[in-house]
Amino acid sequence: MRRRLVTVLLAVITAILVIPAGAVADDQGGETLNGQIRKPETVEGIDITVYQGSEEIGTATTGPDGEWEVEVPGPGAYRVVLDQESVPDEYVVSERPGPEHDEVQVREGQQRTVIFNLARPGEEEGGSSASPSEPAQEAAEEEPAQGEGTPEGVTTAPGVSSATPFGTKVVQLTVAGISFGLVIAISAIGLSLIFGTTRMINFAHGDMVTFGAMMALLFSTGATFNDVPLVVAALIAVVLGALLGIGLERFLWRPLRRRNVALIQMFIVSIGVALILRHLLLVGFGGNRERYDEYQLQEMIRLGPVGVTPRELTIICLSVLVLVAVAAMLQFTRIGKAMRAVADNRDLAESSGIDVDRVTLYVWGLGGGLSALGGVFYGLSQSVYWQMGFHLLLLMFAAVILGGLGTAYGAMVGGLVIGLVAQLSTLWFPSELMNAWALAIMIVVLLVRPQGILGRRERVG
Amino acid sequence: MSGNPEQERPSGVEAAVEAQHVREEVLERAGTAPAGDPRDHLVFADELVAGYVPEVNILNGCTLTLDEGEVVGIIGPNGAGKSTLIKTIFGLIPVRSGGLSLRGESIANLAAHELVSRGVGYVPQTQNVFPTLTVEENLQMGAYLRPKSFAARFDAVAELFPLLAQRRRQKAGALSGGERQMVAMGRALMMEPSVLLLDEPTAGLSPIYQEEVFQRVKQINATGVSVIMVEQNARRCLQICDRGYVLDQGRNAYTGTGRELLEDPNVVELYLGTLAKSA
User: Fold this and answer.
1) Are A74 and A84 in contact (CB under 8 A)?
2) ipTM score of complex
3) Signal sequence span per UniProt (chain A) (predicted)?
4) What is the pLDDT of residue B35?
């Protein structure tokens, strides 16, 4: 009965919260046009000029790494021209996409990437680029991680534009949905296990996701630390995330439980923790969207009809590996079984000789680490900003409720469903509504199966 | 409610009032239970006071002893504190005053998992299995503190409850109430306890399963496990118990061997009810 109440309560809160999350756009300004000359290799000293109509907005020269950037005054259409005079003699400007981009649309807050390719004279025809019939796709393929300038909480799929044929779109969005769903699943396991073992709804879980993403950012790009590789930074972030979870349990939740604080009070406390954590991160890292330095500009790998960046592919593979590892841990190890047992029946677990407090501590460590990892993956495929986890939290709630409260496997299944529905809904509906569709599916599933997909009906009597 | 209500009701009320007086007199008398030496008993609960809500005591000075190899039954009306007593012994409810010892060592206010490691097993009345875990995993949780002994203990427990071996891979939540009770008792036996605490093991079971549970309790006892069981089926419980305690309002009302209590007219009149009289 209480489980059902919690389900309904969470569903209502989630539904309420998704509206502002979808509607509020970030007023950041700071629109730029940028790119990197790197085909066939990075070239320095090439001039690129940006025009709006006939007015020259600015000029940039590529640096030693081939990168250039021009700030533009605001959203709008721009013309970007590569000065062929400045190209060194050993190169010519590739015919595709040519030396000039006409109508480059810049959305609010967007840092739009524009692609220019060089080639060695005579090699151009047999170049490494894709088939000539797909110029629009070619340009889209090299677009870096999306997310900039899109409304908050909306997750964009790579390789999809209005010109893409429907069939390709379906496949492409399915891949994006799986990737997004896996990230939700990884982040939501902890949320579900924490609910299972303590019956507490951890509202701060989204901000634990942000924490992980920002810690990885701090260690991989921060000036204070000597630019460790992102892989190492991600591992550090996971460890720190686990420590954050353990710290919260040990010094906040356990004392509160010992004092018999009721669940609804704990729920409000967790909202407080969420706000504190979120705003500490805002103060520490600022309100801008940031990106990891590595794995940004990537060429798509073509696997039959699917185009996927190595980054996305790695995220999918690693996520699946992590989920399988977590499932194996829960299924076969002593501590994993104990976690499931405590989630099933805390009192009985205590009566069986399980040190329930210790198991709960491990659950928080596991949940914290996984949410940090989810944060790094989410930050990699989108961008890192202070509210990213908060926006993901709604989808995590939806995933956890949809899959069945309190079970880790439910969070996994629910995450995938939510991710897929959110992405595939953009086939027919505006992308601003993607989260709304995900939650609508949650509501429909709950109407049919109130205990969630993998949830268990409470047996009466 | 058979017969003529006009005639029976006033006499029923009178009888109830009189019974209440007798019960209170009995409690007055029983208030001073003889204190024993904790070291003489396996479990010794002395003048226990405990309760859930602050300043409201459910147990008002309960005394209970359990000796090696005994089956002790606790019976009494609803709200007498039977389940509270067994939960207090197992450390689920804090002891407010009084003594509680196992083999002479105080176990008052020890955490439940520490009691398990000292050889006390407990089967709650409801929600006594892990529903999403398989039968085997349920038993593994029973042996959580001694994972290495699992295989040997599983065989021993499966000998008592062959059903557990047959249903090994099934989710416990899919079992019937009676089957769950077997899983629950099996789980509590995995640590090879010297004391088994059973909280109304037959509640909600069909008569056939109730009888099976009583038989199993005797079998478990025959393997050397001492048992304290709380029962609503008071008469059947007293038949298989070595000794019984009748609790009322959180205090001992009557104490004696099962047979003595079954034959005591006051106990029959006040606590065993019409079913016992007619039987």
Assistant:
1) no
2) 0.82
3) 1-25
4) 54
User: With an 8 Å Cβ cutoff, are A353 and B116 in contact?
Assistant: yes
**Token output for B159:** 């000998």
Residue A358 Cα, gap to closest chain B Cα (Å) = 12
Fold agreement between A36-127 and A166-448: no
Tokens 């006071």 belong to: B49
Asked if B144 and A340 come within 8 Å (Cβ–Cβ), the reply is: no
Q: Which CATH class is domain B68-94+109-119+193-278?
A: alpha beta
Select from B113, B124, B132 the Cβ nearest to the Cβ of A353: B113
State how far the Cα of A172 lies from the Cα of A176, in Å rounded to an integer. 6
Q: Select from A344, A353, A407 the Cβ nearest to the Cβ of B144.
A: A353
DSSP helix/strand/coil, B49? strand
> How far is the C-alpha of B199 from the C-alpha of A83, rounded, in Å?
87
Interface probe, candidates B88, B132, B195, B197, chain A, greatest A C-beta count within 10 A = B132
Interface of A with B (CB under 8 A): 334, 337-338, 340-341, 343-345, 347-356, 407, 456, 459, 461
pLDDT of A312-358, one tens digit each?
A: 899 999 999 999 999 999 999 999 999 999 998 999 999 998 999 99
- pTM for this predicted structure: 0.75
Say if domain A166-448 classifies as CATH 1.10.3470: yes
Per-residue burial over A408-433, b if 16 or more Cβ lie within 10 Å, else e, is: bbbbbbbbbbbbbbbbbbbeeeebeb
- pLDDT recorded at residue B272: 78
Give the closest-approach CA distance of B167 to chain A in angstroms: 18
At B209, the amino acid letter reads Y
Average pLDDT, chain B: 85
Residues of B in contact with A404 (CB under 8 A): none
Subunit contact B124:A338, Cβ cutoff 8 A: no
Beta-carbon contacts below 8 Å between A and B: 74
CB A145 within 8 A of CB A426: no
Smallest Cβ–Cβ distance between B133 and the set A334, A340, A351 belongs to A340
- Taking the C-alpha atoms of residue A359 and residue A185, their distance in angstroms, rounded to an integer, is 21
Q: Could you give the CA distance from residue A438 to residue A184 in angstroms, rounded to a whole number?
A: 12
Residue A274's pLDDT band, with cuts at 50, 70 and 90, is: very high
Let me know: does A148 contact A109? Beta carbons within 8 Å: yes
Q: Do A348 and B191 count as a contact with CB atoms less than 8 A apart? A: no
Question: Which residues of chain A does B117 touch, with a Cβ-Cβ cutoff of 8 Å?
Answer: 353
CA B25 to mean position of chain CA atoms: 25
Task: Please name the residues in contact with A72: beta carbons below 8 A apart, sequence gap of 6 or more.
Answer: A31, A32, A33, A50, A52, A57, A58, A78, A106
Note whether A407 contacts B132, CB cutoff 8 Å: yes
Look at A461 and B204 and tell me if their CB atoms are within 8 Å. Answer: yes
Q: Token pair of A264, please? A: 């609804």
The fourth-level CATH superfamily of domain A36-127 is Immunoglobulins (2.60.40.10)
List the domain boundaries for chain B.
68-94+109-119+193-278
How many other C-beta atoms are found inside a 10 Å radius of the C-beta of residue B259?
A: 14
